[in-house]
Amino acid sequence: MAVVLKTGGTTIGLANNNIIPAEDLDRSYIVYPQINQEKCVGCGRCYISCYDGGHQAMEWDEYSRTQHCNTEKCVGCLLCGHVCPVACIDLGEVRVKKGEKEHALTL
């Protein structure tokens, strides 16, 4: 097993079938992050990733070491949840964009 993972072996290219062109992404809705403050350890990774990612939607209180999402700036990429070391950021509110019809979502 270690040899296969070290060399790539049969794992190379497995994700390729899941990659689609950007224009095929469903952009009719936004999924906002939901932060469990009780579980949060205040590391700030969510804030840094959002800030560095260009959206600056995650707002940070240095004194309390807590954050919240500014939904006016959030694009729903959920990068904040991917970098969280304690998995305290989950899928939250789903908002369908103006002018779009509600439909079943694949999250």
TrEMBL record:
This is dihydrouracil dehydrogenase (NAD(+)). Its EC number is 1.3.1.1. Heterotetramer of 2 PreA and 2 PreT subunits. It holds the Pfam family Fer4_21. Keywords: 4Fe-4S, Iron, Iron-sulfur, Metal-binding, NAD, Oxidoreductase, Repeat. PROSITE patterns: 4FE4S_FER_1, 4FE4S_FER_2. Residues 31-61, 65-94 form the 4Fe-4S ferredoxin-type domain. It comes from Salmonella enterica subsp. arizonae. GO terms for molecular function: 4 iron, 4 sulfur cluster binding; dihydropyrimidine dehydrogenase (NAD+) activity; metal ion binding. It is an enzyme of class 1 (oxidoreductase). The keyword Repeat applies. SUPFAM superfamilies: 4Fe-4S ferredoxins (SSF54862). It catalyses: 5,6-dihydrothymine + NAD(+) = thymine + NADH + H(+); 5,6-dihydrouracil + NAD(+) = uracil + NADH + H(+). It comes from the Bacteria. Belongs to the dihydropyrimidine dehydrogenase family. Its cofactor is [4Fe-4S] cluster.
